[in-house]
Design goal:
MoaB/Mog-like_dom_sf; alpha/beta; about 40% helix; MoaB/Mog_dom; 17 strands; globular; CinA; CinA-like protein; 5-stranded mixed sheet
Length: about 425
């Protein structure tokens, strides 16, 4: 069964916001066994919305639509859906009551905009919104069911999971399975080169790649006579993928890189402290996106040389003799924060993120990073390419991967 995803909003077509909804829904539909053939975005134009809904309904067996269900005059999706389905727009009293309760629970007063959100196509199946005011709805156009959800990602995700998936799962072909492998340490071309020939030796399996700097996801997708056959095909192929890529594969599914770093540190019983210069607190932010209080003690952003000396005890002679961006300073920063915070491990980063500040000897992108741990202090460096933010992200990943490998006893890998 093929599916289509339609995102409605002029802010999308103008590039004012990124359409993350479509990618998320596509992944969920694929996991549920559907084949997504079309992902489209159109502006808040009622004639275009009506025409697109009718076209997608004719070509697909399932359509999921997001956006345009809000209280403002440019929210036209419900009216367009009614027109496309050949029905009138009516006020749904149960939806109106739910909206009123939601609005008043926040200490606000109902207005015409709030009430507008209860105007739905006649005969539509209302999809309650437990985290927002605008309800969703489903309605068929011809033989195709269309599901309409708010564009707010938090609301959309909850409603899709709670309201849409239970309704569509019984109609899924249920003959596919996908394994998503998370990798760091090799670029997309090298990952593809390492996996050459796998599709040829695993019938029914296709490999897909998704780059989100500096990571590469490998999607092992299989289709078989039924889901169990597809699952077996995907798992066998993913075993070979992991064997070829080795410890470049750090996790599967939704496992995030920093989450896995934290797990590695936790498995050794290490307590960690951070000393950041050119990354400016980015590493601390990345680690604390997940629970980290059981292993992360704290740290310091030591941008100025004076801060490196006062807070971490970095020698002024070392700074004068080698400069702030050097192996010697990186080592003293890691050892200093480990000593100051009384932890098992100290981590440090110092470099030139750009766009200015580089020299012939120390160009923009040069970064040193270090990990001081019970077995000694390891210092590494590289000149990273890219804009300032890319250099900072690359540096953060490099030192965290070094930490992960030390904690797990894995060999280092050249970047």
């Amino acid at each position: 069964m093929t599916a289509a995803i339609l995102s409605i909003g002029t802010e999308l077509t103008r590039g004012e916001i990124v359409n993350t909804n479509a990618a998320w829904i596509s992944a969920e539909l694929t996991a549920a066994g559907f084949t997504v053939d079309v992902i489209d975005a159109i502006p808040d134009d009622i004639d275009q919305i009506v025409a697109t809904l009718r076209t997608l309904a004719k070509a697909h067996r399932l359509v999921v639509v997001t956006g345009g269900l809000g209280p403002t005059t440019d929210d036209l999706t419900a009216a367009a859906a009614a027109s496309a389905a050949g029905v009138t727009l009516v006020r749904d009293e149960s939806a109106l009551l739910a909206i009123r309760r939601r609005v008043e629970s926040r200490g606000k007063t109902m207005n015409a905009g709030h009430e507008k959100q209860a105007d739905l196509p006649a005969g539509a199946d209302v999809l309650p919104n437990s985290v927002g005011s605008a309800p969703g709805f489903s309605i068929p156009i011809g033989d195709t069911p269309l599901f309409f959800l708010p564009g707010v990602p938090r609301e959309m995700k909850r409603m899709f999971t709670d309201q849409v998936l239970p309704r569509i799962r019984p109609s899924a072909p249920n003959n596919t399975f996908q394994v998503r492998l998370r990798t760091y340490g090799l670029g997309e071309s090298l990952v593809g080169q390492a996996l050459a020939g796998i599709e040829g030796t695993h019938t029914g399996v296709t490999l897909g790649y998704r780059v989100h700097f500096p990571e590469v996801d490998v999607k092992v997708h299989a289709r078989g006579a039924n889901r169990e056959v597809a699952r077996d095909l995907a798992l066998r192929a993913s075993t070979e993928v992991k064997a070829r890529l080795g410890d470049v594969v750090y996790g599967e599914g939704d496992e995030a890189f920093t989450e896995m770093v934290g797990r590695a540190v936790r498995s050794r019983g290490y307590r960690l402290a951070l000393a950041e210069s050119c990354t400016g607190g980015l590493i601390a932010h990345m680690l604390t996106r997940y629970p980290a209080s059981d292993y992360l003690v704290g740290g310091a952003v030591v941008y100025a040389n004076s801060a490196k000396t006062r807070l971490l005890g970095v020698s002024e002679d070392t700074l004068r003799g080698h400069g702030a961006v050097s192996a010697e300073v990186a080592a003293e920063m890691a050892e200093g924060v480990r000593r100051t915070c009384e932890t098992d491990v100290g981590l440090s980063v110092t470099g030139i993120a750009g766009p200015t500040g580089g020299t012939a000897e120390k160009p923009v992108g040069l970064v040193y990073w270090a990990v001081a741990h019970p077995g000694g202090t390891v210092v590494r460096n590289k000149v990273f390419q890219g804009e300032r933010e890319e250099v900072q992200i690359a540096a953060a990943y490099a030192v965290l991967d070094l930490l992960r490998r030390i904690a797990l006893g894995l060999p280092e890998r050249a970047l």
